[in-house]
What does this fold into?
Amino acid sequence: MIDIVDYLKHSEKDMLQFLEEIVRMESPSQEPQLTAQLADYLTICFEKMTNGKTSRIHSEEYTDHIRAEWGEGENQLLILTHLDTVWPQGTLETMPFEVKDGKAYGPGSFDMKAGIVQAIYAIQALETNGVELDCKIVLLITSDEELGSPTSKDFIIEEAKKSEAVFVLEPSQGENGALKTARKGVGTYDISIKGISSHAGIEPEKGASAIEELAEKITYLSNLTDLDKGTSVNVGIIDGGSSKNVIAEEAHAVVDVRVQTQEEMDRIAPLIEELKPVDEEVEIQVEGEIYRPPLERTDEIEVLFEKARDLAKTYLDLDLEEESTGGGSDANFTASIAATLDGLGAVGDGAHANHEHVIISQMPRRSALLAMLLCEYGKVRS
Ligand SMILES: [Zn+2]
It folds into this structure.
C-alpha cells in the first residue's frame, strides 16, 4: 500500500497536467461533437497509461460511453465516472483553467474531471507497481450523467449486477472530503394543463381556466413536502395564459421531487402521476418520473465506508467522514444492487458554480484511497 501512496504522491504534477488538458476540452452533455473528442482522448490515455482495453457503449443521442477494463478474473469491481459537464461551450472564455493557491479552477474540474484523472491514475498505480488482483476492474466513463443518465442508466445497472462493489468518483463533500453514503432520490415532472379559452369580459362562463387549475395544483404539490421524512416537492417553473382578457387555455409547471427512502418514493410518485383536475372541463397530463431512486445507507455500504476509513487513517493519516446529500448521482442506480461508495472523487468546492475548483494536493491522496480500496476488495473477495 505504501508503494502506491508514494507513487501517486510523486505523480501530482502529471495529474495536474492531465486535469488541465481535459478541463481545456469543453464537454457539455448536449454537444456530442465536443464530448466525442474528450471520449477519444480519454480512451487513448487509459490504454496508454494502464495497458488496459476499452470498448464503447452506443448512445443514440449523446456520445458513446466508454467501458474501460483492466485486469482479469471472474469477479468485477466497478468505477463510475462521467465526462460531461453542465457548462456550455465557450465557458472557458470567462472561466479559464487556472491554478491559484494550490487550487485548480475551471469548468468541470471538480465535477468530475479530477475524478476521472484520479481513477485512471489509481489503475495506473496498480499496473506500475505490479499489483495483480484476482478480479477485473471496469471503469465506466459516461457522457450523459448531468442529464440524469438517460442513455447510460441501463448499462450502469448491467455492470453493477456483475460487480462486487461500486466506487463512484463524484466530488466529495466539504473541506475534509467526506464520502457520500446516502443520497436522495430525484424526480422531475412536467405538468400540462389544458382548459377552455373564452373572452374574460364577454363570456367568462364559457371558459375553464388552466391557470386556476394550476394554482390549485401548486398548493397541493407543495403540501406534499415532508421535511421530517426527507421529502421535498418544489414547483420550480410555471407558465400559462395568452392574454389578460382571455381565460387561460393552457398552463404548465415543472416540478422537482426529492425523496430519502424507497417508502417515500412509493408514496409520493403515484400522488403526482395520478393528479386529477378539480374542474372537470380541464385536462391534466403528467409526464416524468422519479428517475433516480434514493441511495439508502445499507449495511453493505457501512462496511465499505468502514474499510475506506481504516485505509485513510492508516495510510493517509486522514479522518474520513461520511455525509448524506440531497443531490443524486449514478450511485443511486447501483446502491440497491451492489455495495456502493460515492464521493470518492476530488476534494474542492463549487460544483456547477463559477468558483468550481479542486485542491491539487488532495488529488494523489484520493487516487491512492481508490487504489487501496481496489486492492482490498480485489483480493478479499476472490
Ligand atoms: Zn458529477
About this structure: The CA atoms of residues 208 and 290 lie 30 Å apart. The chain has two domains: 2-183+295-378, 185-292.
